[in-house]
Design a protein that fits this description.
- This protein has 761 residues and is mainly β.
- Among the domains are: 77 residues, no CATH class; 79 residues; 171 residues, Immunoglobulin-like (Sandwich), CATH 2.60.40.740.
- It is built from four helices and 56 strands.
- Strand 50 and strand 51 form a beta hairpin.
- It is elongated and about 135 Å long.
- The termini are far apart.
- The N terminus and C terminus are likely disordered.
Length: 761
């Protein structure tokens, strides 16, 4: 009996002794038994006990099974052997130690594992099918295998400077990956339908597979070696940073939610920004762009394209309100197109960065730009004094003003259409018509407020006669070819009924027959006599025009009287009570882009406060048709009344845009040919001088000509009575629609004198 009792005692002692866990690292055992490190619940925010639950100084297997969480931060142990007995452990936090190897593969209940900031070079996390979050950054891992961790959602393995292999497979719920500052060469993140965040910059990545992982929201892959990045079907992507790789192409189609894009430091020479984008921040410095168009980025606020040494053309016109733009060291840039509201800012940046050869304008497209609200309509004239519903005709080029703000951003067309582009606020829009007392305009004004339920207000205007008002206007315009000794010259006579009554009468054209021979006219003359041609007309309705082109032969220098370059030829046209005299300077060669005053370079004091006529000619000397041409005229408001400007004639369909003292004559989609017989165009207009002018004042009026999307062909600054130089072609964008021409120095100057020109005395 005694022997049996002894045997039972020894057996129980043996069993009891076998339950004590051996921890070779005494410091680890001390941390378990003497520090607050353990949790027996699933609330891993509270730590109130050590792992020695019975306070016997040891940890037995039963105690280990009771522990659900362990938390260690900063200590001296380097070996966690014995951790495998904590088989119900769900949470393990151990950072700031000197651990070298770590095997937690038997802790199959683990959900959260943080081993950051150790010295771990080997980590075994296989079979942890319940693991949701793994943090093992700031270690010495060379490889990491998370295959089969089917519940893994978050992985941090950043700053493992030797980590070159990161292996995924069957990780369908991975949501976040932070693997930056390692040496990872490739990432296969395919078929991860819940993946949202990938931050893997500063690696050695040459391949990233994101196929069928279409929930990605934030993607940071900067400072790698990627040559290709397939973002197909990544419509949820909001942030993309792929700077400092080796990308030569970046396809953004389908990235409809992208707001932030950084592709600095690549080899990209072309990028297309889709129209349905919501991009706000875009940096693309240090690439190989030659042409960069962000005009479709309507929401952009921050833009940086600095250090693109090949960049020649930059299109910024998009209606956006930039808060920051950088264009540093784009040393070869030739052209920037921007919104009117950004023009001063961009011009200042160009000057600050010393980009002396860069042209800045707004003509890459003709949208209203920053003005998102539209007031539009059509203007008609009816002579029956009732309405504009039946026999009304279109009324061209009506101008508008806003009470308190003067003339606003007008687009006025020859067919009577108008578009007023305005910002937010209250507007009281009034039509501006010469001789307003003789016409009735219905309605008298438009009152609008933006923003409202719509960004567009449509209102037509009807103009009808008031009383009897008779007025005809007449102009003689020198066409191409101009007057040259011994050659034919063409002139266009334009007369308009500017009154409110139907007119009939005779149009008279006189010239110096000793120097000019009448050759032909596009309308058969009723009388051709010595130095005079007459055409009878009838039933000229209000605002209708008569246009006649006459061809004259100019005397040669050997004729009597001789005509040579620099001589003046005078022609007079009259209709009813209106007379116009053209002073036409004979030239020795054709100057294709110039600006002249049709009354000559000396104006009689009687014309102070009255109209003077200008003609601006342009010629396409390139090798492609010019789709668009813009003539920009900056009006000197100390000399001219910009509100009185009227188009008298144009070579092609044209509309005007007036803002402040800037007048733009826009020839849109005219496809101006480049063959010498058809490559010319012009705009003729008249404008009143101010009544405050005095004898000796100069009338300076500058104009710029732009072809297609691009550059000023001539800031017209030639002094009158000097020859304008031909414009010289200096290069082309490799495209069919941009021609680069060098500026000349044309300057149109009129001087008022106290006596009439000789021909009028």
């Amino acid at each position: 009996m005694k022997n049996l009792i002894l045997a039972c005692f020894l057996f129980c002692a043996y069993v009891s002794n076998s339950q004590i866990i051996n921890f070779p690292d005494e410091n680890f055992k001390y941390a378990l038994t003497k520090t607050i490190c353990a949790n027996t619940t699933i609330d891993f925010t509270r730590w109130d006990k050590n792992a020695d639950l019975n306070n016997d100084g040891e940890i037995d297997e039963q105690e280990a099974l009771s522990i659900t969480g362990l938390y260690f931060s900063g200590g001296s142990f380097s070996n966690m052997e014995g951790i495998k007995y904590f088989k119900n452990l769900q949470f393990l936090y151990c950072t700031g130690y000197s651990l070298y190897n770590m095997d937690v593969s038997e802790l199959k209940e683990l959900r959260f594992l943080n081993l950051s900031g150790n010295q771990i070079s080997i980590l075994n996390v296989s079979n942890l099918t319940n693991l949701e979050e793994l943090k093992c950054g700031y270690n010495r891992l060379k490889s990491l295998d998370v295959i089969g961790l089917t519940k893994l959602k978050v992985l941090y393995c950043e700053y493992n400077s030797e980590l070159s292999e990161l292996t995924f497979n069957n990780n369908p719920f991975l949501t976040e990956l932070y693997s930056y500052s390692c040496k990872i060469k490739s990432l296969n993140l395919s078929n991860m339908k819940h993946l949202k965040y990938v931050i893997s910059y500063s690696n050695k990545l040459d391949e990233v597979n994101l196929h069928n992982s279409d929930s990605i929201y934030y993607l940071s892959l900067s400072s790698n070696s990627l040559t290709n990045l397939d973002l197909t079907s990544k419509s949820n992507l909001v942030y993309l940073s792929c700077s400092y790789n080796k990308l030569s192409n970046l396809e953004l189609d389908g990235l409809t939610n992208l707001t932030n894009l950084n592709c600095d430091g690549n080899l990209i020479d072309n990028i297309y920004i889709p129209y349905n984008n919501i991009l706000e921040n875009f940096t693309c410095s240090r690439n190989r762009f030659k042409f960069l168009d962000i005009s479709s980025a309507k929401n952009i606020k921050i833009f940086n394209c600095s250090y693109n040494y090949s960049l020649a053309f930059l299109l910024l016109k998009n209606g956006a309100s930039f808060s920051k733009i950088e264009i540093k060291d784009n040393l070869n840039i030739k052209y920037i197109c921007c919104d009117d509201g950004q023009y001063d800012k961009i011009s200042e940046l160009v000057e600050q960065n010393g980009l002396t050869h860069c042209e800045v304008n707004t003509y890459c497209n003709f949208s209203p730009g920053i003005y998102h609200n539209i007031i539009q309509g059509k203007v008609k004239f009816s002579s029956d004094s009732f309405d504009c519903n039946t026999t009304a005709t279109n009324f061209p080029y009506l101008k508008f003003s806003d009470v308190g703000n003067g003339i606003i951003n007008n687009l006025n067309y020859s067919n009577g259409n108008f578009v007023l582009a305005v910002g937010n606020g209250m507007y009281n829009i009034n039509p501006k018509l010469d001789n307003i007392l003789n016409f009735e305009i219905t309605p008298k004004n438009i009152v609008g407020f933006f923003p409202s339920t719509s960004d567009t207000i449509t209102q037509d205007f009807c103009i009808t006669p008031k009383g009897i008002y008779r007025q005809t206007n007449i102009t003689v315009i020198p066409l191409t070819p101009p007057a040259r000794p011994g050659f034919e010259a063409k002139y266009k006579i334009v007369c308009e009924n500017a009154g409110n009554q139907v007119e009939s009468g005779t149009l008279n054209f006189t010239y110096d027959e000793s120097k000019l021979d009448f050759i032909s006219a596009t309308s058969v003359a009723d009388i051709i006599a010595d130095g005079i041609v007459k055409w009878n007309f009838s039933d000229l309705r209000p605002f209708e025009k008569i246009e006649i082109i006459v061809t004259m032969l100019v005397n040669r220098p050997t004729d009597t009287p001789a005509v040579k370059a620099g001589d003046k030829l005078y022609m007079t046209a009259s209709i009813l009570d209106n007379i116009f005299t053209l002073e036409n300077t004979v030239v020795g060669s054709i100057d294709p882009n110039d600006k002249t005053c049709l009354q000559g370079d000396r104006v009689h004091p009687d014309m102070i406060g009255k109209y003077v006529d200008y003609l601006i000619r342009f010629e396409n000397t390139g090798t492609y048709a010019a789709e668009n041409v813009v003539v920009k005229d900056i009006i000197d408001t100390k000399r001219f009344d910009v509100s009185t400007l009227q188009i008298t004639d144009a070579s092609h369909e044209v509309y005007t845009r007036i803002e402040g003292n800037k007048v733009e004559f826009i020839f849109e989609n005219i496809q101006l040919p480049f063959d010498d017989a058809n490559n010319d165009g012009y705009i003729a207009f008249k404008i009143k001088t101010l009544s405050t002018l005095q004898l000796g004042d100069s009338l300076k009026n500058l104009a710029d000509i732009y072809f297609d999307y691009n550059f000023r062909s001539a800031p017209m600054k030639h002094r009158r009575r000097s020859h304008c130089h031909h414009l010289h072609k200096i290069g082309y964008l490799i495209s069919t629609f941009i021609q680069i021409l060098s500026p000349t120095s044309c300057f149109s100057k009129l001087r008022i004198h106290g006596r009439k020109p000789k021909s009028l005395m």
